[in-house]
């Protein structure tokens, strides 16, 4: 019980401390309220602008959901494909690394032109940013299957499909989960960036509020975006726990 | 019959073939096989040996003498660089069931004990009913039927090795290969598992090749002990075990056991010199 | 001996004083160097600021450069903003003042494809199509109130003229001095409407400083304004010097476009009033009108007396 109190209590205390300091700094005039609005101002923006923020949040959540789903499914399938064909792997792997480094800010305007304004461009942006960690982590997982287990499957004359389904994929789950955590965070960022130019969602609210000099609204929006990211990552944590609880040191309880 | 340096001689070739055809276990015929690694290392050179069906053979030798390599070649995990190696040639081309037990249990950690044991049958396409029945039978035999729903992470080292053994037996193998399976376990568990293995073999009558570097284990378990030499990369010595078929913990106190272990020990020392 | 030493020390200190008399000022632009900043570059290049004891560092900007924030935070002493942005800033707690207004008439415009046959700005909003604009800017609220936005799809303005060129049913925002010229060069046929003609005409490209800075450096400000006026006079007569420098800094526009832009903006900068009272002129009446417009559009919650915003 005490441990639980600590786990929840300490972060809450830290939060209160930070908010108090922040509020005081601005009220005392050490930082201009124009540059860094006080927490109370951000909160009132959150309340006042809620109808607009809520609609935007729903749109962004929808875009993030779709793009993350696409990243996970296409990502894992691509990794399996790369894994099963050595030729394809050697041919395409360098490009997966290359595409990971393309700055999304630079190509976002092109995405709008190719996919159209609104959700399509946003999904494209979020997908591009979030698919590669999935591919990379899945591939690493597949390649890291225990060699002794591989021998075991060889001895039992398992077919390629059997090995993939019963050995390689289950072994990869811890790696995939790590990749998903990274990918989830990136999906939210990619969506927001896409929304700057796509014109919908939280990103759009931030863009407009910025031009209106409404920094408090910008902060409120960013807060919501972070909450979304947190929700996504926590969900992935939940799935990870459920899948790995019996067997992987990362999730198994202390015995 | 002296236990020293004698090879197993059978009566006539015809009788031999008859015997083999009737036996359950697979024979092993190795003729001048060699294994050379890409690094140039040659742990096995021009090695020839025969293993009759149903025999319990121990491969004994110091580290690096090639015993694990030889075992892997017999298992088919590695092809000899030269020479011929035939496993169960008399039984014809039909399904040969070979099982392998590693130094560690290597269970699939994401599967419960029962599902780990059914794995080989699953890969062969057996029905769920059949595989679970066979798995439970063999788990009963190794004394772990109460743990069928446990995950490997919840088992001790000895229990995991038992599950690994059960898995190797679920296909009713004709040839069982074991690579120092009990080396990582504590002594008491090891002695227990030696006994269990011997009893299982008496029941199932398959051919067993057991790699070990423990002299007492080889002496306790095997019909015939094959000692490998690091220097020659071949067989240094083959010894027939004079001990009776039925063996128990008491056998370890038998004078023949002590004599045998002493012979093996001095052989071992010569090899290492 | 003592007298000589004293003399030398006095000379040295006089020299030092003369050196420190040159004040470095950083001016943050809110866009890449284009004709709208020509006068500043001209004065800097000809050493006009230097003569007034000012070492002016011009910092080019780009999309979303937070000029007001930079000035408010003290990262730069001066910045380029727009009158409506200044009023918005004040309502959020910023304390900056405008000391010089380049455009008497706002060059903010809407480019449309000529073959759509629009005759006035009203037509753009009453015909189904797409409008690319920075949706956070007050002029859009103005258009919304005056014409309604229900018939058009408003999308974000991505910069440049790519959107305009790729969609025949799209109208986009731009500066009279840049985008229409760029579009024409790429083979398009734009018909441009000035937003100012519809009744929304804030001073554009104004120089802002922090209020305290203005109070503490009144003399310096005066010198700056004087030098800037001179620079603009020069640029309006002959923009080639500044244009040369700017087109090196901003390769996205070719020298031809710079020349055309500089010409197009002359009537927006030099009016009968400025001929009498100097370029960069600002009046209380204009600021009052603008702040009332913004209050009416509900873009700000509160406004202050016009003197608060400029000097």
How would you characterize this protein structure?
In chain A, 83% of the residues lie in helices and 0% in strands. Chain A has helices at 2-27, 39-48, 50-84, 86-100, 104-115, 119-143, 147-155, 160-198, 201-211, 215-244. In chain A, α3 (50-84) packs antiparallel against α8, α6 (119-143) runs antiparallel to α8 (160-198) and α8 packs parallel to α9 (201-211). Chain A is globular and about 75 Å long. The two termini of chain A are 19 Å apart. Chain B has a domain at 1-97 and 207-273: Rossmann fold (3-Layer(aba) Sandwich), CATH 3.40.50. Chain B is built from 8 helices and 9 strands. In chain B, α4 (128-141) crosses α5. By secondary structure, chain C is α/β, with parallel strands linked by helices. Helices cover 46% and strands 19% of the residues of chain C. Chain C has helices at 2-20, 38-45, 48-51, 67-72, 83-91, 121-126, 138-147, 162-166, 179-185, 211-216, 218-237, 240-249, 255-264, 266-269, 272-277, 284-296, and strands spanning 23-28, 54-59, 78-81, 96-103, 108-113, 129-133, 152-156, 170-175, 190-194, 204-210. In chain C, the strands form 2 sheets. In chain C, strands 2-1-3-10-4 form a 5-stranded mixed sheet. In chain C, strands 7-6-8-5-9 form a 5-stranded mixed sheet. Chain C starts with a helix and ends in a 15-residue tail after the last helix. The model of chain C has no long low-confidence stretch (mean pLDDT 92). Chains in contact: A-B, A-C. The A-B interface holds A 146, 148-149, 151-158, 162, 166-167, 170, 173, 246-248, 252, 255 and B 75-77, 98-100, 102, 104, 106, 108-110, 119-120, 122-124, 151-154.
The number of domains of chain A? 2
Order of H and E elements of chain C = HEHHEHEHEEHEHEHEHEEHHHHHHH
In oligomeric terms, what are we looking at?
Answer: heterotrimer
Report the strand count of chain A.
Answer: 0
Low-confidence stretches of chain A: none
> Could you tell me the mean pLDDT of chain C?
92
What does the largest sheet of chain A look like?
none
Categorize the overall geometry of chain C: globular
């Amino acid at each position: 019980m005490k441990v639980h109190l600590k786990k929840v209590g300490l972060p809450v205390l830290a939060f209160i401390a930070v908010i108090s300091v922040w509020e005081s700094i601005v009220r005392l005039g050490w930082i201009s309220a124009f540059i860094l609005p006080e927490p109370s101002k951000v909160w009132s923006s959150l309340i006042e602008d809620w109808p607009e923020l809520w609609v935007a949040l729903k749109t962004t959540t929808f875009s993030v959901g779709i793009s993350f789903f696409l990243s996970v499914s296409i990502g894992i399938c691509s990794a399996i494909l790369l894994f099963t064909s050595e030729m394809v792997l050697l041919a395409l792997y360098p490009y997966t690394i290359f595409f990971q480094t393309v700055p999304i800010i630079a190509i976002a305007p092109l995405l709008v032109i190719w996919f159209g304004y609104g959700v399509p461009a946003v999904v494209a942006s979020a997908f591009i940013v979030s698919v590669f960690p999935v591919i990379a982590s899945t591939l690493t997982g597949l390649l890291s299957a225990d060699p002794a287990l591989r021998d075991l499957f060889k001895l039992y004359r398992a077919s390629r499909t059997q090995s993939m389904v019963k050995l390689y994929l289950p072994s990869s789950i811890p790696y995939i989960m790590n990749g998903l955590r990274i990918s989830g965070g990136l999906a939210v960022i990619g969506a927001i960036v896409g929304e700057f130019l796509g014109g919908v969602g939280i990103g759009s609210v931030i863009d407009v509020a910025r031009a209106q000099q409404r920094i408090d609204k910008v902060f409120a929006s960013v807060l919501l975006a972070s909450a979304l990211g947190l929700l996504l990552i926590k969900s992935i944590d939940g799935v990870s726990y459920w899948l790995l609880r019996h067997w992987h040191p990362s999730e198994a309880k202390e015995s | 019959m002296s236990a020293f340096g004698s090879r197993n001689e059978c009566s006539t070739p015809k009788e031999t073939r008859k015997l083999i055809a009737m036996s359950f276990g697979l024979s092993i015929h190795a003729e001048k096989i060699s294994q050379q690694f890409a690094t140039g290392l040659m742990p096995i050179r021009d090695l020839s040996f025969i293993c009759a069906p149903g025999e319990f053979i121990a491969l004994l030798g110091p580290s690096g003498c090639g015993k694990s390599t030889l075992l892997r070649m017999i298992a088919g995990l590695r092809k000899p660089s030269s020479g011929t190696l035939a496993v169960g040639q008399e039984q014809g081309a039909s399904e040969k069931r070979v099982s392998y037990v590693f130094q560690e249990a290597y269970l699939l950690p994401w599967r419960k004990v029962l599902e780990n044991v059914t794995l080989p049958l699953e890969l062969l396409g057996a029905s769920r009913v059949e595989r679970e029945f066979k798995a439970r039978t063999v788990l009963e035999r190794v004394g772990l039927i109460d743990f069928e729903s446990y995950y490997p992470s919840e088992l001790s080292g000895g229990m995991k090795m038992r599950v690994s053994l059960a898995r190797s037996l679920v296909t009713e193998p004709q040839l069982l290969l074991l690579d120092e399976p009990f080396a990582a376990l504590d002594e008491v568990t090891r002695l227990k598992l030696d006994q269990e293995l011997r009893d299982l073999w008496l029941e199932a009558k398959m051919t067993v090749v057991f790699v070990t570097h423990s002299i007492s284990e080889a002496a306790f378990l095997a019909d015939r002990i094959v000692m490998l030499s690091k220097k020659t990369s071949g067989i240094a010595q083959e010894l027939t075990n004079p001990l009776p078929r039925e063996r128990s913990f008491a056998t370890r106190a038998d004078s023949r056991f002590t004599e045998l272990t002493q012979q093996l020990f001095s052989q071992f020392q010569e090899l290492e010199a | 001996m003592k007298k000589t030493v004293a003399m030398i020390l006095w000379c040295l200190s006089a020299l030092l004083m003369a050196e420190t008399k040159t004040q470095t000022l950083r001016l943050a632009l809110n866009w890449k160097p284009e004709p709208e900043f020509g006068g500043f570059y001209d004065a800097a290049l000809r050493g006009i600021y230097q003569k007034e004891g000012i070492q002016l560092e011009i910092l080019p900007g780009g999309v979303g450069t937070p000029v007001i924030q930079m000035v408010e935070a003290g990262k730069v002493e001066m910045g380029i903003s727009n009158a409506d942005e200044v009023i918005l800033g004040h309502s959020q707690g910023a304390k900056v003042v405008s000391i010089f207004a380049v455009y008497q008439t706002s060059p903010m415009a809407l480019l449309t494809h000529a073959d759509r046959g629009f005759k006035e700005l009203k037509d753009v909003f009453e015909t189904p199509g797409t409008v690319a604009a920075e949706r956070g800017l007050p002029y859009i609220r103005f258009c919304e109130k005056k014409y309604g936005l229900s018939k058009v799809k408003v999308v974000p303005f991505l910069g440049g003229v790519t959107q305009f060129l790729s969609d025949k049913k799209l109208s986009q925002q731009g500066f009279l001095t840049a985008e229409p010229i760029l579009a024409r060069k790429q083979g398009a046929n734009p018909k441009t409407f000035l937003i100012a003609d519809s009744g929304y005409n804030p001073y554009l490209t104004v120089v802002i400083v922090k209020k305290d800075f203005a109070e503490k450096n009144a003399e310096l400000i005066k010198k700056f304004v004087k030098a800037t006026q001179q620079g603009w006079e020069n640029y309006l007569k002959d923009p080639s010097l500044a244009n040369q420098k700017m087109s090196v800094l901003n390769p996205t526009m070719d020298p031809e476009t710079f020349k055309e832009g500089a010409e197009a903006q002359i009537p927006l900068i030099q009016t009968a009033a400025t001929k009498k009272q100097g370029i960069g002129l600002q009046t209380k009446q204009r600021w009052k009108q603008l702040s009332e417009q913004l209050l009416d559009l509900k873009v700000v919650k509160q406004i202050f007396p016009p003197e608060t915003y400029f000097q």
